[in-house]
Amino acid sequence: MSDCLFCRIIDRKIPAKIVYEDERAVAIEDIHPQSPTHLLVIPRQHLPSLLEAQAGDEALLGHLFLVAAQLARERGLDSKGYRTVINTGSGAGQTVFHLHVHVLGGRPFHWPPG
Which are the catalytic amino acids? Predict the structure, then answer.
């Protein structure tokens, strides 16, 4: 989608600090981090949100979480814990309507969030 921020980052039309990429996903550092580590794992396939995901997207969704776990391990977040978040819809805080997984760590988190 030509007007999608994340599609434009994936296509290298907008700069971003890419920390991981493969044939199905790209991970970047968040430009407005909410914790010392704040990464976004983004599928190359444009899905506006989790709400639009279908049964055929099951492997892709699993892949996003495996990438999130790998990145968390690589950054040493696994020893103290980290949070993964998918915001779905503007009421939940989604501001870019291209599905993405937030990986947050490096500070204590509380429950419930927000």
Answer: 100
